[in-house]
Amino acid sequence: MTPVALTIAGSDSGGGAGIQADLKVFAAFDVFGTSAITAVTAQNSRRVAAIHSVPPLMVAAQIEAAFADLPVASVKIGMLGNAEVIAAVAETLSRHAASRIVLDPVLVATSGARLLPEEALEALVTLLLPRSLLLTPNLPEAAALTGSPIAMDEAATIVQARALLAMGPKAVLIKGGHAAGPRSTDLLIDADGVTRFSAQRQSVGEIHGGGCMFSSAVAAGLARGWPLAAAVTHAKGFISRVIAAAPSHDLGSGARLLHPARRLGRRLGHNAAAPSGSIHKSPFLA
After folding, report:
1. What is the pLDDT of residues 51-87, one digit of tens each?
2. 284 pLDDT above the threshold of 60
3. Helix/strand/coil for 37
4. What is the CA radius of gyration of the chain?
5. Alpha carbon 109 to its chain's center
6. pLDDT tens digits for 82-105?
7. What angle do CA 277, 280, 284 make, to 5 degrees?
8. 30 CB contacts (<8 Å, ≥6 apart)?
9. Is the C-alpha dihedral spanning 35, 38, 42, 43 positive or negative?
10. At how many degrees (to 10) do helices 210-223 and 262-269 cross?
């Protein structure tokens, strides 16, 4: 059976992030992609020019249509826009008993535009975090969700991850793209401990859509039936390859746009070998 994944996110007219990026990644993993658009944005590699929110009932209707006709195996959630949409998404997913949910808490665009108002954070935390299999914040997002300063080292990152874990998701993956150092290390924290996913940091400048693609790659792996750690392993390898192959600024003049070639996803999707980089698991320290 062809695996099916659903992305619930905003539309990026520039094609670099959001729904457009998610569907490209699903296709790269040979996963049939469906979508529920929460907002229409006018944006490109430089800025977000305008945002138009989709009414909550329409967002819910899109999710209903996907589940009514297709065997949706995983869900990736990105930009939601406001508390009303969050409530509609949570209620609809609960009614369909969706379980393999990857929540990417999109708060601010790469350009700096606010994509979720602060007053909607409580709805995100109370309604969607407890329903999620995996929460995938970057360092600034983890800080915002926990009301803490941005973590400057691994110990502080783990403290924030454990605080997020206490809010209800089954696991938390804090991405290390905003950290410093020669290697980019992502930390997966669940009830069993900490797993580190590390790869050489690539000097390609600011990237647009990398977080969207990483989380949708995890959702694609889950749709294929992979365990969570395996899905993260392949997603890490995938996004590292895509960043390495990122085109020059002949695509846009702002943040670097990624272009996930299908062959990259197929290489990972049909090969059980772990991608380049290192993975290390350790239990929580008391």
Report:
1. 999 999 999 999 999 999 999 999 999 999 899 999 9
2. no
3. strand
4. 17
5. 13
6. 999 999 999 999 999 999 999 999
7. 150
8. 2, 3, 224, 265, 266, 269, 270
9. negative
10. 40
